[in-house]
Amino acid sequence: MTKLWGGRFQKSAESWVDEFGASIGFDQQLVMEDIEGSLAHVTMLGVQGILPEEDVEKIKWGLNELKKRAENGELEYKIENEDIHLNIEKMLIDLIGPVGGKLHTGRSRNDQVATDVHLFLKKRVKEVIELIETFQKTILQKAEQHIDTIAPGYTHMQRAQPISFAHHLMVYFWMLERDKERFKESMKRIDISPLGAGAMAGTTFPINRQLTADLLGFSRIYENSMDAVSDRDFIVEFLSNSSLLMTHLSRFAEEIIIWSTDEFKFIELDDSFSTGSSIMPQKKNPDMAELIRGKTGRVYGNLIGLLTVLKGTPLTYNKDMQEDKEGMFDTLQTILGSLKIFEGMVRTMTVNTERLHKAVHSDFSNATELADYLATKGMPFRKAHEVTGKLVFTCIQKGIFLQDLSIDEMKAESELIEEDVYEVLKPEAAVSRRLSQGGTGFEQVRVQIEKAKACLN
Ligand code: ARG
């Protein structure tokens, strides 16, 4: 009987059963956190006089030795030791002898695994926040280069009103700003120590939970030991925040893909972020953007997966909860990768200003200008809307645009229209005059960009 918990068992599980129950294949990613948690725990056991100092020193030495080996990739994990916690404990005992078996005094794998995941997410969510901010900086830089670039703005995927291209790009800055806020805010609930909750009811040993929390850098501790071992909300939140982040990246990816088509050609992706076709030599595909759009699916899946795992689990720990990890690791890897790739893609893309200029000068996106012009001259806006609509219809029949109509043709619909209308119909005027707060007017976009800068570190 080699199992650390094997005392009450008469026979071993068969290896294929062990394999099904094991989490070591994926929870080995928690090795550093597991050792860190054990070091804090054993230090506390010493301070509290629960273990004699010499035992504590031996255990610490062993744990530090395992840490070094882990850093060098020298640890050999075994399926029969089920998970990272038992693997490390077994290695410790093999390394320093039976005294290693004292490490688990006053502790359970239930508070141990929760501690590991809290530590893990605390570290990695910081990385996510940093990457979001790096991407925001890149978007901001691109936007600054294109404040004066006029582009068509869309609703219903139809040309709506001319905008500053910077205004469009900055939308993604603000989405990411909210994502960043959400991840930062979630830290409050990641940054809690479950250690010392034991299996679920606490322990009879005179432990000091505040001390282990302090040693591990946690801001506070769970107030209820049962809550401590059964709470996985903080992982759900991470998956949920990641899902919304991916929604944003996916929307941006969709635009990048559309803008890269021959039909739009608003941007060109750098060769280093595109791929060719194995059969069609002319192709340059926005694969990275498509992949990010596609990977959004698995991130949503991981969120729904964990919510579903949790909904039927009674208190407290249930083995179901082992299913919290793979989705979390996968989501983390996916969002870190997606953020990195997207940042590079945007940094290196070229904006086709000529094409945008042409687009915006050959459409009806200045129709609102004419309606506003008439309204300013006293015509009720509803009427102005109708008059403009009629002129648009005339243009469509003639195959021309509003600015191509003669003054007489316009006057035929309303005597209020005068020569100065041509100035108003220019897309440049349409943008620069939209000076309401948060509007696309160049001056407003400059103000917006200054405000955005204040959100960055
Ligand atoms: N591998 C387990 C998990 O990931 C660790 C906790 C196991 N606890 C237990 N009582 N079986 O959830």
Structure, described:
61% of the residues lie in helices and 5% in strands. With 457 residues, the chain is mainly alpha-helical. The strands form three sheets. A two-stranded antiparallel ribbon has the order 1-2. Strands 3-4 form a two-stranded parallel ribbon. A two-stranded antiparallel sheet has the order 5-6. Helix 6 (109-145) runs parallel beside helix 12. Residues 23, 27, 83, 109-110, 113, 317, 319, 321-322 line the site of arginine.
Query: DSSP helix count?
Result: 19
Strand order of the largest sheet: 1-2
Low-pLDDT regions = none
Q: What portion of the residues fall into strands of 2 or more residues?
A: under 5%
Write down the overall mean pLDDT: 96
Q: Terminal Cα separation, in Å?
A: 56 Å
Which structural class best describes the helix and strand composition? mainly alpha
How many strand segments?
6
Radius of gyration: 31 Å
Catalogue the ligands.
arginine
The secondary-structure element order is HHHHHHEEHEHEHHEHHEHHHHHHH
User: What does the overall shape look like?
Assistant: elongated
Question: What percent of the residues sit in helical stretches (DSSP H or I)?
Answer: 55-70%
Main sheet: strands, sense, barrel: 2 strands, antiparallel
